[in-house]
Amino acid sequence: MRNKAKLAKLFADLSSLPELPSKTTPTKRKKQSTPKRCFSEVQVERRNPGRKARPPEHFGKEVEENPAPPKRESGAIDIKRLMEVKEGPGDARPKQRKCRSQESIRMPEDITEEELENVADRAKDKILDKENGSTCHQCRQKTLDTKTECRGLYCGGVKGQFCGPCLRNRYGEDVRAALLDPSWECPICRGVCNCSLCRKRDGRCATGALTRLAKFFGHDNVRDYLESLQKDVE
User: Fold this and answer.
1) CB–CB of 185/132 below 8 Å?
2) What DSSP element (H or E) covers 135?
C-alpha cells in the first residue's frame, strides 16, 4: 500500500511540472551552388595579378643602347689603293737568305700517287686539322690536303706550300703540275705572291677576296687581274 501511495504522489508531482520543449535535431544547411565560370571570365575579373605574372618593366619598349655598326658593302674595293705603294720601306726582305740543302727538297719522284689524289680541287674538299695538317701560305689554314713543294734553294720550304684552291684562284696554276715539275718555285720566290703578309712587306695593302672580281673582268686568277691593273696605271 505504501508503494502505491508513493507512486501516486510521484505522478502528481510530474503532472504539476511545466511542459519541456521537444528535442529537435539540427539540420544541415545546404551550400548555395555557384554557377561555374569559364576560364576567360576568371582572367578578365582578375584585377591585381601576382608579381610573377606581371610583365617586366619597359616591356615591349624598343631600347637600342649600342646601335649596331653599319654593314660594310661587299665588293666595295678601291682599285687605286691596290696599286699604291707606301713611301719608305715596309718589312724589308732579308738581304742574305740561307741556302737549304738539295737533299731536303722533295723532287717529283718522291711524290706518291696517294699525295696527288689528296690534292684539294675545291675549298670544301679541305679538312681542317690543327694538329696533323699542313699550313697554306695564302689562306693560312691548317688542312690535311696535299700542298705544293717549292724547289727553290732559298725557299723556306714550309712557306712555299700552297693549297689547290689558292694556287688556282690566286695564280692560275695547278698543284699537281707543280708537284711534278722539278724546277717549280713558289710565288714567294718568284716575287709575285699577293697574300696579305707579302703585300704588307712590300708596302701595299691586302687585296681581300678578289677572285670573283677578277673573273668578272675576264681574268682566271687574281695575279693576272693585278698585273692588268698595273699596266693600266703605267
Assistant:
1) no
2) strand 134-135
Q: Cα separation of 70 and 58, whole Å? A: 27
Where helices occur in the chain by DSSP H, the ranges are: 2-16, 39-45, 79-83, 113-117, 164-171, 175-179, 187-190, 196-201, 211-216, 222-233
**Cell numbers at residue 100, please?**
737549304
Output the pTM of the full model.
0.62
For residue 26, name the pLDDT band (cuts at 50, 70, 90): low
Query: Are 123 and 151 within 8 A, CB to CB?
Result: no
Residues 143-187: tens digit of each pLDDT = 999 999 999 988 876 788 999 999 999 999 999 999 999 999 999
Instruction: Please write the tens of the pLDDT for every residue from 65-91.
Output: 666 666 555 456 677 777 778 766 555
Q: Quick one: angle between helices 222-233 and 164-171, nearest 10?
A: 20
* C-alpha grid cell, residue 70: 653599319
User: Any long-range contacts for 104-107 (C-beta under 8 Å, 24+ apart)?
Assistant: 104/157, 105/149, 105/151, 105/153, 105/157, 106/149, 107/151, 107/182
Report the first-to-last Cα separation within the chain, whole angstroms. Answer: 163
